[in-house]
Design goal:
Layout: E1 2-6, H1 13-24, E2 27-30, H2 31-38, H3 43-50, H4 57-70, E3 77-80, H5 86-99, E4 105-110, H6 113-122, E5 123-126, E6 132-134, E7 153-154, H7 161-175, H8 177-184, E8 188-192, H9 197-212
Parallel strand pairs: 1-3, 1-4, 2-3, 4-8
Antiparallel strand pairs: 5-6, 5-7
Helix pairs in contact: 1-9, 4-5, 6-7
This protein binds BIS(adenosine)-5'-pentaphosphate (AP5) and magnesium ion.
Magnesium ion binds near residues 13, 14, 32, 80 and 81.
């Protein structure tokens, strides 16, 4: 089982990817997480991520290759936030062809611009365990504290409203063309991202189970 999660920032890719990985015991590959780690020691990446711009294709593909080597992707994987440009998608195809691996589906989690902005600006993350909250949709029991480990909740630097809006503009111009790309190869599965977290997961889960049977 090999899946790609595609969709605007804030649509719920990370939330759903983690659920799929947990339920089906797959490898989780998030280029956003890889780059948030890389930016700690790389000022150039820090500047791009913090302002909501994409990191150059070659650098991202290089990072992905490194992570693919570290993980046993033959057991199945979920890509979250990769590929994000046509060039990245073509290079992923080449990489997978070389390994004789096929993508089963690209789940396109769709969400309109303004709802995506609200999701991003309300998101809070635990500094310690990384658990996701939302100030309106999924608040923690005690304001600013994680329900699980009681550590502080923070806002991602690129979730400030102006940067969040910029990320959506970047998505529209550079990532949205992938919808056509994957439609042409019959891999695209449309998912309505405006539904609740549980409903979105149910749609994905049903698709996966139907495909397996
Ligand atoms: P990345 O980390 O991939 O961010 P993103 O694509 O902008 O997406 P987000 O993580 O903001 O949103 P999400 O879709 O994961 O939503 P989530 O589940 O968290 O990338 C960050 C940056 O890294 C990029 O801007 C770029 O600079 C760089 N980068 C990454 N990949 C790259 C690549 N391939 N090439 C070049 N550069 C790259 O949900 C959001 C919020 O909504 C949460 O609070 C959650 O609790 C809530 N929520 C989720 N689902 C629901 C629901 N159904 N109902 C109500 N609330 C919900
Ligand atoms: Mg994410």
């Amino acid at each position: 089982m090999n899946y790609v999660l595609l969709g605007p920032p804030g649509s719920g890719k990370g939330t759903q990817a983690k659920k799929i990985v947990e339920k089906f015991d797959l490898v989780y590959l998030s280029t956003g997480d890889m780059l948030r780690e890389a930016k700690k020691s790389n000022e150039y990446i820090n500047k791009l991520v913090s302002t909501g711009q994409l990191i150059p294709d070659e650098a991202v593909v290089g990072l992905v290759k490194k992570h693919l080597k570290k993980n046993d992707i033959k057991k199945g994987f979920v890509f979250d936030g990769f590929p994000r440009t046509i060039w990245q998608a073509e290079n992923l195809d080449l990489l997978l062809e070389f390994e004789n691996i096929k993508i089963d589906s690209v789940f396109f989690i769709d969400l309109c611009f303004e709802k995506a902005v609200k999701r991003m600006i309300g998101r809070r993350i635990c500094v310690m365990c990384g658990t996701n909250y939302h100030t309106v949709e999924l608040p923690s029991k005690k304001s600013g504290k994680c329900d699980l480990c009681y550590n502080e909740l923070i806002q991602r630097s690129d979730d400030k409203e102006d940067i969040a809006r910029n990320r959506l503009v970047v998505y529209e111009s550079q990532t949205k063309p992938l919808i056509e790309y994957y439609k042409k190869s019959n891999l695209l599965t449309y998912i309505d991202g405006s539904r609740s977290e549980e409903e979105v997961f149910e749609l994905i889960d049903i698709w996966i189970k139907n495909k397996k049977s």
